[in-house]
């Protein structure tokens, strides 16, 4: 196996390649066969989470007649997306602003090139239906499960601070989404901090309750980020710009066909239909360009993480953005 294949194997142990044939395949095999079969053609390796971008693009038909090859990699959360970007195992990836900033403050060099602005409500602290926890003030002395440096981590710290509580007043369990849910279900952890579609599934199928939601605590930003290597490749840069245009186009279509897309999203991701519809409809989202306000909000997030020592020292986020991409063709 070559060096690139080894990196893919390490990074994508939980990822699924869903290329043109949509067959499951080992990542190193897919890399070797897909790229060799398309010699001379630009290839974009794209990291997605729970089918967020892919479902929208495929359901809307926005990927018709692309001149470049797309290999999709599915991830369960932002942390492995950030790691894949860091080692150049993917060209572009979809991840929340907080984990992106956390990763770049710890040696990551990817740049955010577009922002998905959504209602932050479903980034939430959830508990089982019979839990005595009714609000954030009841979290004192309790344990919460989430990924370190994630939007869930940010939300938790913000919620605690709002109630005059400190991190030492609770117990943090750093677990990926599936493990966090299991820990709450078996009673070893009191609350699960997560995002859609996990939140929607937990509400509809597991009868979990939202005790804290992201409104007023979290920006609702998700970034499309690209590696320096990909951005310096002019052919890839052109393909990435085209991809962003198609993302924006697919978002407009989805907004006008909410139920239809919700069903397609569920089918593509394997979620129950009601979960897919709920998760999509409450996003109220739009792809937008990186501007000064986005950078300002992101600096605030970095400073907040520094305050809580998740980032060792002052981190200037400016170099983590590339403002040279548009989202709509004029």
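Sequence proposed for the structure above (330 residues):
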């Amino acid at each position: 196996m070559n060096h690139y294949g080894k990196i893919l194997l390490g990074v994508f142990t939980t990822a699924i390649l869903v290329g043109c044939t949509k067959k499951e395949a080992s990542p190193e095999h897919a890399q070797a066969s897909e790229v060799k079969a398309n010699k001379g053609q630009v290839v974009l390796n794209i990291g997605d989470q729970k089918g967020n971008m892919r479902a929208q693009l495929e359901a809307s038909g926005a990927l018709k007649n692309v001149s470049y090859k797309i290999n999709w990699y599915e991830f369960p959360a932002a942390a492995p997306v950030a790691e894949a970007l860091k080692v150049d195992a993917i060209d572009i990836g979809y991840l929340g602003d907080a984990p992106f900033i956390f990763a770049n403050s710890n040696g990551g060099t990817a740049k955010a090139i577009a922002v998905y602005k959504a209602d932050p409500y479903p980034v939430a602290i959830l508990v089982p239906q019979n839990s005595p926890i009714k609000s954030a003030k009841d979290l004192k002395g309790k344990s919460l499960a989430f990924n370190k440096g994630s939007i869930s981590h940010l939300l938790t710290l913000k919620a605690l601070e709002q109630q005059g509580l400190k991190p030492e007043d609770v117990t943090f369990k750093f677990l990926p989404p599936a493990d966090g849910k299991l820990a709450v279900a078996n009673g070893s952890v009191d609350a699960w901090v997560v995002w859609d579609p996990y939140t929607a599934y937990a509400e509809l199928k597991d009868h979990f309750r939202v005790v804290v939601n992201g409104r007023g605590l979290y920006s609702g930003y998700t970034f499309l980020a690209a590696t320096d290597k990909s951005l310096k490749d002019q052919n890839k840069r052109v393909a990435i710009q085209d991809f962003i245009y198609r993302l924006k186009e697919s978002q407009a279509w989805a907004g006008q066909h909410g139920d239809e897309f919700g069903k397609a999203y569920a089918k593509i991701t394997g979620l129950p239909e009601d979960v897919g519809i709920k998760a999509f409809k409450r996003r109220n989202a739009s792809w937008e360009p990186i501007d000064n306000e986005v950078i300002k909000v992101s600096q605030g997030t970095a400073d907040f993480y520094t305050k809580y020592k998740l980032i060792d020292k002052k981190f200037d986020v400016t170099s983590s953005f590339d403002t040279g991409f548009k989202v709509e063709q004029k």
